[in-house]
Specification:
By secondary structure, the chain is mainly alpha-helical. The chain contains 16 helices and no strands.
């Protein structure tokens, strides 16, 4: 696999202490190399998941027996939608550590693979009771998502109703839980309540982890325009300037100036036409007389077919096929 460049200022010291302790089982140079790749995974996971995935694969090739590496590879695969691959990495990490912290995300991988029934079954397993409060809230959201995948939208709303949802305290999971509840309400047509909970999610979303503000704007019929959108810039570009309209008074004045010229033209043309007609009439008369004389001479000279002379008929060619 092609190694990706790592900035020189990235060091293994930036890695979590627990992960660094796991890497102590490796040779020093190798541990530093793996740690730097894991740092790049953490830096790029949210904004550049494809790049993070590549760094995770390098770390996995270098140290596949380290649980932290398998977990990082699982999250990188999950971020790019490779759910089967992610599930395999999470299972491997869980076998190495023996803890159930990854149980909710493993269930969500089952959803991603099109198996919501298995995700819902995992929500009822004893491993859920071993999760901390944040893990249990996460498992509840996964279960609600599985319900919606199965077409049970009303059950999804009920699944999310919990003491954590009703609490006024702001926790790391509060914004996402309220957002999931608002989205579930909207799916069953309870728009007014959905708007209320999107607003509550926005209030708790101090880190911008949801798009609650966009969903609120959508419900309110507000449309945002991206100032950096090139297509929008093209639409907002200079428009062709319309030709100035001529005032009606100017049009009437122009028509008034043009009318005498239009009226003068027939007067100038009519005498010339009459002169031409007077010059042509005698010629037409002579032509008509000549035509009458020619017709009379033709009648006197040309015999009709019935009066043709015998000597003229003798000179005509015989018709084909006449043997008589």
């Amino acid at each position: 696999m092609k190694r990706l460049p790592i900035p020189e200022d990235v060091t293994g010291e930036e890695i979590d202490k627990g992960v660094r302790q796991e890497l102590m089982s490796l040779p020093k140079t190798l541990a530093e190399d793996v740690a730097r790749n894991l740092v790049m995974v953490a830096k790029l996971l949210d904004d550049e998941p494809e790049q993070a995935y590549q760094y995770a694969r390098v770390a996995l090739r270098l140290a596949s027996r380290v649980a932290a590496v398998r977990e990082a590879a699982g999250f990188a695969s999950y971020a790019v939608g490779k759910y089967s691959e992610a599930l395999a990495e999470f299972r491997a990490a869980r076998r190495m550590t023996g803890n159930s912290d990854l149980w909710p995300v493993m269930a969500d991988c089952e959803r991603g693979m099109g198996r919501p029934e298995r995700a819902l079954a995992m929500a009822g397993e004893p491993e859920v009771q071993k999760l901390d409060r944040a893990g249990q809230v996460e498992m509840r959201m996964v279960a609600a998502g599985a319900r919606r995948d199965m077409g049970q939208a009303d059950a999804a709303v009920v699944t999310l109703q919990s003491p954590e949802l009703a609490s006024h305290s702001i926790q790391p999971w509060t914004a996402r839980l309220r957002y999931a509840y608002a989205d579930a309400l909207l799916a069953v047509g309870r728009e007014d309540e959905a708007r209320e909970w999107f607003a509550k999610a926005l209030e708790a979303d101090q880190g911008g982890t949801t798009d609650a503000s966009d969903r609120l704007a959508e419900l309110d019929g507000v449309e945002f325009v991206d100032a950096l959108d090139p297509e929008q810039e093209a639409d907002d570009g200079p428009k062709p300037v319309a030709e100035p309209k001529v005032e009606e008074a100017e049009v009437e004045e122009a028509e008034a100036d043009a009318e005498p010229e239009a009226d003068a033209e027939p007067e100038a043309v009519e005498p010339a036409v009459e002169e031409l007609q007077s010059d042509e009439e005698p010629e037409d008369a002579e032509d008509e007389g000549q035509d009458d004389d020619a017709e009379d001479s033709a009648e006197d000279v040309e015999p009709t077919k019935a009066e043709a002379r015998p000597e003229d008929q003798a000179g005509l060619p015989e018709k084909d096929g006449d043997d008589s």
